Amino acid sequence: MFTSLPRILLAAATLLVALLPQLALAHGVADGDRAFIEQSSGLQILPFIYLGAKHMVTGYDHLLFLFGVIFFLYRMKDIGVYVTLFAVGHSVTLLYGVLSGTHVNAYLVDAIIGLSVVYKAFDNLGGFRRLLGFQPNTRAAVLIFGFFHGFGLATKLQEFTFSEEGLVGNIVSFNVGVEIGQLLALSAILLAVSFWRQSGSYLRQAFAANTLLMGAGFILMGYQLTGYFVG
User: Is 22 a domain residue?
Assistant: First the structure.
């Protein structure tokens, strides 16, 4: 297992680099979806629910963070608590950011989202206890990072020209879709992790998995910070 670990890390790192454009644009909205959003008028509940769900299912940054959050959670009660905290944080800032028109720098917010992935992977590796001698409140961390994940999407939606007619209902519908998408994506992640745990190699491969997760977070951070300082 240990002799093959460097090869696994190298292959996964190569894949991460290849996926960099997609990972960095995890909050992006497809051109066709953008056109629909800007051209729609009035209350469009189902289409906006669909768009919200689509965003979450294809939101690599959200999925990486959630993967880290549930990595060592075995009870559905605990998973429910953490996912709910993330959903509350994400919903509050998404709705507030869009409806209030509060603007924040998109590059910095997305860099913090990358940091959230690094943070959770480092936490899973026991880094805080080893280096700092204490364990930060994991529930508070998930909630706080949930706020930033919501603002990340809000910064993208603020780029669109929304019709004032049905605006609140459409944004709320979009947020409902995001949460539905989160449940669908989380279900797939839990199914995959459940099979992985049954293989008996789960704990032995935990270090490699979270190292890769941390690498993905650093890639996201680096890309966004480059955009902030260069763009």
Answer: no
